[in-house]
Write a structure and sequence with these properties.
Structural class: alpha/beta
CATH architecture of the largest domain: Up-down Bundle
CATH superfamily of the largest domain: Dehydroquinate synthase-like - alpha domain
Order of helices and strands: EHEHEHEHEHEEEHHHHHHHEEEEH
Radius of gyration: 20 Å
Largest sheet: 6 strands, parallel
Strand order of the largest sheet: 1-8-5-4-2-3
């Protein structure tokens, strides 16, 4: 059950009535409790489990706290965990639900654009291992994903940018909407009806890929476009005590990996130029020093998509035509990191 709803409480009530859980727990952070939880009104009691906001919640300590809260609250294998929040909440909550008593029901209600178009779709769960992104996780489809576009009205600009990065990725991979984004940009943020249509198109695209390759043995790897470099940037920033949004990292990662693909003559220069213009027009550059590049390369070798220590990137040869995962020599990746710095200086 995955879809957009404009009557959130009614949709959740229907799901609960169909599944008859013995207890219902809601996983969310303080901001979501304030701005989004009031939109849910059901006649069943809800037990709230509050977590920290963002990536800092995605660790084993938080998992243990949630497992204990579920156990102390009397959760059984017939209980339901509702994950109300952004991608960090659904990543974490999905992992907890898939492992508590070997699996309980879980419903995702995404509250951010990024989560609506990407993180909540596809059945990947995960927590971080140190600074390594989503190193521990499972493949486990949620029992329901209820997308309520009205939550977009609660988002700050930074959260809009996070989602737009993944939508640019989907447009490049599918070839649909890419020309519109280049020529006209995204809809006005106040036009929730138009955004609902864009969100639905992104959900359908990602769902179509997942249905063919759930466990990422083949074509699902294309959805990692930009993420090898993005995860390295997030690792670097975390180690340096700096903040970097996932969307900004993905946008930079898309450009950096496309630069590397162009150097290897996999991606034509014309497409690189269009991607460069789109990323520069929509996102601030990610700042790092040339002296950081060896560490960035080291992290890309450790990325969970890498094979035998080689750097592996998902790239495209043209819009709508993903290439097979590309093994990028360290020397080429090194030059791509530096080229991005040169372009954004």
């Amino acid at each position: 059950m995955i879809g957009i709803t404009h009557r959130l409480s009614d949709s959740l009530k229907n799901f609960i009535s169909e599944n008859q859980p013995d207890k219902i727990f809601v996983l969310c952070d303080a901001n979501v409790i304030q701005y989004c939880l009031p939109a849910i009104s059901v006649e069943w009691p809800l037990e709230i489990i509050e977590i920290a906001e963002g990536e800092r919640c995605k660790n084993l300590t938080t998992c243990e706290n949630i497992w204990e809260a579920l156990a102390n609250g009397g959760a059984t294998r017939n209980s339901l965990l509702v994950c109300l929040g952004g991608g960090s909440t659904t990543d974490l909550g999905g992992f907890v639900a898939s492992t508590y008593q070997r699996g309980i029901k879980v419903c995702y209600i995404p509250t951010t654009l990024l989560c609506m178009v990407d993180a909540a779709i596809g059945g990947k769960t995960g927590i971080n291992l140190g600074g390594l992104k989503n190193y521990i996780g499972t493949f486990r489809m949620p029992d329901a994903v209820l997308v309520y576009p009205e939550f977009l009205r609660t988002l700050p600009d930074a959260e809009w940018q996070n989602g737009k990065a993944e939508m640019i990725k989907h447009a490049l991979l599918s070839g649909k909407g890419w020309t519109d984004i280049l020529q006209n940009g995204f809809p006005d943020q106040s036009d929730i009806r138009e955004w609902s249509q864009w969100i639905e198109a992104n959900m359908k695209f990602k769902t179509s890929i997942i249905s063919e390759d759930f466990a990422e043995n083949n074509i699902r790897a294309m959805l990692n476009f930009g993420h090898t470099a993005a995860h390295a940037l997030e690792f670097l920033y975390m180690n340096q005590g700096r903040q970097l949004s996932h969307g900004q990292a993905v946008a930079a990662g898309i450009l950096i990996e496309t630069i590397a693909a162009s150097m290897m003559e996999v991606c034509p220069v014309g497409l690189l130029d269009n991607i460069r213009s789109c990323i520069h027009d929509n996102f601030d550059p990610v700042a790092y020093n040339p002296s950081d590049v060896p560490e960035l390369n080291m992290v890309t070798r450790k990325d969970k998509k890498s094979k035998s220590g080689n750097i592996v990137c998902s790239v495209i040869s043209e819009a709508g035509k993903p290439s097979p995962p590309l093994s990028v020599p360290e020397t080429v990746m090194y030059k791509a990191w530096l080229q991005y710095l040169h372009e954004t200086a």
